[in-house]
Every structure is written in structure tokens, then in C-alpha cells.
Specification:
It is globular and about 30 Å long. The longest helix is centred in the last third of the chain and has 11 residues. It has two helices and four strands; from the N terminus they run E-H-E-E-H-E. The strands form two sheets. Strands 1-4 form a two-stranded antiparallel sheet. Strands 2-3 form a two-stranded antiparallel ribbon. The chain starts with a strand and ends with a strand. With about 60 residues, the protein is of the alpha+beta class. The structure holds iron/sulfur cluster. Iron/sulfur cluster binds next to helix 1. The site of iron/sulfur cluster has 14 residues, from helix 1.
Length: about 60
């Protein structure tokens, strides 16, 4: 699984970074970025939740 953050949607709330800091970090612009691609197996379940309807509040985390 590979993910990306859609910069047009990310509002920099930090939910993804605080939930899964191995996979997400902030860019210099205060938006999130994916720092682990492909996503390691042990992080896939949580990453999928963040990319799903109950995850990122703006739906900015997208599967590549
Ligand atoms: Fe951006 Fe979504 Fe992460 Fe919040 S949870 S920082 S809106 S990608």
C-alpha cells in the first residue's frame, strides 16, 4: 500500500501525524506528508483507517 497527502485538502490538523508518526510528518508548510512508502505491514491497518471515512477529517489521505 502506498499513500499520499492531497495538499489541496489537508488543513494541517495533525491527526495523522499524532496517530502514526512513523508514516506521517509535517512539511515546512504545515501540511502533512507521507514519509514511509510503501507503508510497512505493521502500519497498514492504522494507515487504512486514517485514509478512510472515519480518519482524516478532510479526506486528504489517498491511496496511490
Ligand atoms: Fe492533513 Fe488529514 Fe493529516 Fe489532518 S489528518 S494533517 S487534514 S492529512
Amino acid at each position: 500500500m502506498e499513500l499520499k497527502v492531497n495538499k489541496d485538502k489537508c488543513i494541517g490538523c495533525g491527526m495523522c501525524v499524532s496517530t502514526l508518526e512513523e508514516v506521517f510528518d509535517f512539511d515546512d508548510d504545515g501540511q502533512a506528508k507521507v514519509i514511509q512508502n510503501p507503508i510497512k505491514e505493521e502500519n497498514e491497518e492504522t494507515a487504512s483507517e486514517l485514509a478512510g471515512d472515519n480518519g482524516c477529517p478532510t479526506g486528504a489521505i489517498e491511496e496511490v
